[in-house]
Design goal:
Shape: elongated
Radius of gyration: 33 Å
Distance between the termini: 65 Å
Number of domains: 2
Largest sheet: 5 strands, antiparallel
CATH architecture of the largest domain: 2-Layer Sandwich
CATH topology of the largest domain: Beta-Lactamase
Helix content: 40-55%
Structural class: alpha+beta
Strand order of the largest sheet: 2-1-5-4-3
Low-confidence stretches: none
Strand content: 15-25%
Number of helices: 7
Number of strands: 10
CATH superfamily of the largest domain: GAF domain
Mean pLDDT: 83
Length: about 300
């Protein structure tokens, strides 16, 4: 549904503006995950919403527990509403009724918020009112002022679609508010559980990479590159690849993690491949084949303590 609404609004926008519009939408939806405190998040979200909806002004209203009083927590050009004392009271009643909404609506100038409602829009501007709901509780209300003739959404159908589209956008606002409230009172156990799940996922991915690299290296088994220099260059490249991913080869003689090297060996012009590792007896080299061995891989062991 949100995709259909977005497409209909995009069709109403000049082609040279569509890319900018889509970029603005994506930036708005990404805000919930940005490292912003609550106030900066609300300010940025409202500013970008006004850009997206081509609104003249906007406010994010938060209510107390009784919903008897509303306070503007973020605002953009709210002076454009030009409210006098009488219209101010009518506007307040409209907002209080808006807190009872379960979905966003577009309220036409000098029109009721709903067919049987007593409150109405006392201004000459189209207003979009959207409840910010978390766990079936309305925490705040977003008000966007589109002006007497909205720049986007020239038809009644598209103006009504704005309400459904604002619901789509406000899901990201709800997520961002919830994240920032929970951040201040987060419990440790769920956070540790999520961290362990991420760790398990990383280990699974690492094992997949290990097997893929292992299979690739085994394709070189039995090869000799003709000279000691060439064999050493290949062995060094293998080590750089494995070290970058935290891997080591397994020594076929003792089973310990090792670094594969190529060294001079007797009368051999191309040297020998050896497994370099530290055992309890000290640094040890095992192996000695003249061709690249059929290697098996393991994860890199923790760094040895100095002197051990």
């Amino acid at each position: 549904m949100a995709r259909e609404i977005l497409d209909s609004i995009l069709n109403d926008i000049a082609s040279d503006e569509k890319v900018v519009f889509q970029n603005q939408l994506q930036e708005l939806l990404n805000l919930a995950h940005q490292p912003l405190d609550l106030q900066h998040f609300l300010n940025d979200f409202l500013f970008r919403s006004c850009q997206l909806f081509a609104a003249n002004a906007g406010v994010i209203w938060f209510a107390d527990e009784a919903k008897s009083r509303l306070e503007a927590k973020a605002e953009v050009h709210i002076e454009h509403l030009l409210l006098d004392d009488e219209t101010h009271l009518a506007h307040d009643q409209l907002l209080r009724d808006g807190m009872s909404l379960t979905s966003s609506v577009v309220v036409k100038p000098f029109s009721a918020i709903a067919p049987q409602a007593t409150s109405c829009n006392p201004t000459d501007s189209f207003l979009v009112l959207g409840p910010v709901r978390i766990a079936n509780h309305t925490l705040a209300l977003v008000e966007l002022v589109l002006g007497p003739k909205p720049l986007r959404g020239q038809t009644t159908e598209l103006q009504t679609a704005y309400g459904r589209w604002l619901d789509y956008v406000l899901a990201s606002l709800s997520d961002g508010i919830e994240r920032r409230f929970l951040r201040a009172s987060a419990t440790l156990t769920p956070a540790l559980d999520r961290l362990r799940a991420v760790s398990d996922e990383v280990q699974d991915i690492q094992q997949m990479i290990l097997k893929r690299v292992e299979q690739s290296l085994q394709a070189f088994a039995g090869m000799n590159f003709g000279t000691l220099k060439s064999n050493q260059e290949f062995a060094n490249s293998v080590h750089a690849l494995l070290d970058r991913h935290g891997f080591r080869v397994i020594c076929p003689e003792c089973g310990a993690p090792a670094i594969l090297r190529c060294q001079k060996a007797g009368n051999s012009k191309s040297g020998a491949f050896v497994f370099d590792h530290y055992l309890e007896t000290g640094r040890t080299f095992h192996g000695g084949p003249s061709t690249f061995p059929n290697v098996k891989l393991t994860t890199k062991p923790p760094r040895r303590k100095r002197g051990s």
